[in-house]
Design a protein that fits this description.
Number of helices: 13
Shape: globular
Strand content: 25-35%
Distance between the termini: 7 Å
Bound molecules: adenosine-5'-triphosphate
Strand order of the largest sheet: 4-10-11-17-14-13-12
Structural class: alpha+beta
Low-confidence stretches: none
């Protein structure tokens, strides 16, 4: 019945994301703002589901990680201590002809990619955004928008040790916005100037850092696989010596095969005691941990898995995207993992006739408190199925005229397009089971197979 059509491209994804309310350009009616994006009604649900899945696996399901939500604006001394004021920069070159700016380390030739013009010598360009605290624009009041969430964790290390009663090894997790004045943005939401990070700093006893790095690389890789990303599209890449930050003992990237090629999704680094040492020196406050087993004071080492929310969303969109030809018509579908799908169930009355609509609304009212449910009574049923496929909705529930007689409804599965018919009182539990992974053809009492593609 169905056969595979084209592959995902960034153009197709951008246009579908706009059409179905996943992602819009920021300030769209004013022509946008470079490197900034807005998440629409479908996009925000997908993004929240990604963040919830991360929080569940990193914080909720473990007893050795706690959460935090630190401020975006921090004391500017934080960024001196962390090395960002002095060193968080990329080499910038400018075209002498068209004046476009480029990241020198991303160019393959020493000429302007836009016009072929001659380029200036590279200069270091700091990626931190500056702003001002208070009404006077003077240097003393300059603060930065954080370029990563991690520093909010390091500076709270002692607060957490003193209040959470956690002993090593333990981690602190944070999800939040970060800002970088990237020289070149692009590839949709892959590299933007305002983005969200999911970071966790795992504090360990020196000497155990190597095994914890391996552990977290494996854990984080498995997380993407569990969310349904195809293993073939994921890989680990170990940083070579020349790529490592001077303080780091080891670093792995988890990469995804995006339409533009293999690119970083997440970095997992062994940061040793660099961050705590820096903050201890600059603040003059001891950040040493007292180990009551060995009766020693020392600075813990840190293993940091640092992931981008937006890059995860992009990888999930790319991986779930599919085109097939069904009965000579193109079907575009997102095969999202049910936990990630923005809408879990759509309730579709076959017609708007009063008696059908009231039964469908009743069903909608029962399902809505249990999972993200949409009600759609516009256009022909086929069109509505296609729309839900493009939103990646795993199940559609159709109420038809026979439902008025037999009190049953049809469940249509997104991936197989197979259908079953089940008694309306059993709908909620059946859908809960299917969303948790049960085979469609395992039927509740009184249920039957309706359509097999
Ligand atoms: P890149 O080399 O791609 O610039 P990075 O190595 O500087 O990334 P990190 O500082 O390690 O990135 O940040 C951790 C994660 O935050 C990245 O793996 C990525 O998922 C996300 N991230 C970093 N910069 C951006 C950005 N400009 N837009 C979207 N996500 C980003």
């Amino acid at each position: 019945m169905s056969e595979k059509a084209g592959k995902v491209t960034m153009e197709k994804l951008v246009s579908l994301c706009q059409r179905r309310g996943f992602v819009f350009p920021s300030s769209d009616i004013y022509g946008g703002l470079s490197g900034c994006w807005d998440y629409g009604p479908a996009g925000i649900e997908l993004k929240r589901n990604v963040k919830e899945a991360w929080w569940r696996s990193i914080v909720q399901e473990r007893d050795d990680v706690v959460g935090i939500d630190s401020s975006i604006l921090m004391n500017p001394k934080v960024w001196e201590a962390s090395g960002h004021v002095a060193g968080f920069s990329d080499p910038l070159v400018e075209c002498k002809n068209c004046h476009l700016r480029w990241r020198a380390d991303q160019l393959t030739e020493n000429k302007c990619p836009a016009c072929g013009g001659e380029l200036t010598e590279p200069r270091q360009f700091n990626l931190m955004f500056k702003t001002f605290i208070g009404p006077v624009e003077e240097a003393a009041a300059t603060v930065y928008l954080r370029p990563e969430t991690a520093q909010g964790i390091f500076v709270n290390f002692m607060n957490i040790v003193n209040t959470s009663r956690k002993r090593l090894p333990f981690g602190v997790a944070q999800i939040g916005k970060s800002f970088r004045n990237e020289i070149t943005t692009g590839n949709f939401i892959f590299r933007s100037r305002e983005f969200e990070q999911m970071e966790m700093e795992f504090f360990v006893k020196p000497g155990t850092d190597g095994q914890w790095l391996d552990y977290w690389v494996q854990e984080r890789f498995n997380w993407y696989v569990k969310l349904g990303i195809k293993k073939d599209n994921l890989r680990r890449r170990e940083h070579g010596q020349e790529e490592l930050a001077h303080y780091a003992r080891g670093c792995f990237d988890i990469e995804y095969l995006f339409p533009m090629g293999w690119s970083e999704l997440e970095g997992i680094a062994n940061r040793c005691d660099f961050d705590l040492k820096q903050h201890m020196t600059h603040s003059g406050k001891s950040l040493e941990y007292y180990d009551d087993e060995t009766k020693e004071h020392y600075l813990p080492y840190i293993i940091e898995p640092s992931a981008g929310v937006d890059r995860s969303v992009l990888a999930i969109l790319c991986d779930a995207y599919d085109e097939e030809t069904v009965n000579d018509e193109l079907r575009v579908v997102f095969h999202f993992h049910p936990d990630l799908a923005p809408v879990k169930v759509a309730v579709l009355p076959l017609s708007r006739k009063e008696n059908l609509a009231s039964l469908a609304k009743e069903v909608y009212g029962v399902l809505r408190p249990c999972f993200a449910t949409q009600y759609d009574d516009t256009q022909a049923i086929g069109r509505r199925y296609r729309r839900q496929d493009e939103l990646g909705t795993p199940y559609c529930v159709t109420i038809d005229f026979a439902s008025l007689e037999d009190n049953m409804a049809t469940i249509r599965e997104r991936d197989s397009m197979n259908q079953i018919r089940v008694p309306i009182p059993a709908l909620k539990d059946t859908l809960l089971a299917k969303l948790a992974g049960e085979d469609l053809f395992i039927l509740p009492e009184g249920g039957k197979i309706w359509k097999q593609e």
